[in-house]
Write a structure and sequence with these properties.
alpha+beta; about 40% strand; extended; 4-stranded mixed β-sheet; 2 helices
Length: about 80
């Protein structure tokens, strides 16, 4: 899911569908469903299918601490 303003800024086109948002008090809303291609500076590309663009999505802010990333990397390494 993404806020519909981001979908609009990306210029992604899709189709409309209804969606039930339980965490927003059971709100029923219209969604634009799109596919988005994402790539970094390398050549690897990822396609996200069925991304729901919801107006005024109101998801809580997410954050990631460098220490958490470092700990996860160390956990994956074979020592």
């Amino acid at each position: 899911m993404a806020d519909s303003s981001l979908i609009e800024k990306l210029g992604a086109k899709g189709f409309q569908s209804g969606v039930y948002l339980q965490w927003l008090g059971g709100r029923v809303d219209n969604a634009t469903i799109v596919a988005i291609e994402i790539s970094g500076s390398g050549v690897q590309k990822y396609i996200w299918h069925h991304v729901y663009g919801i107006q005024d999505l109101q998801l809580p802010m997410q954050n990631l601490q460098k220490a958490d990333v470092d700990a996860a990397r160390l956990k994956r390494m074979s020592i």
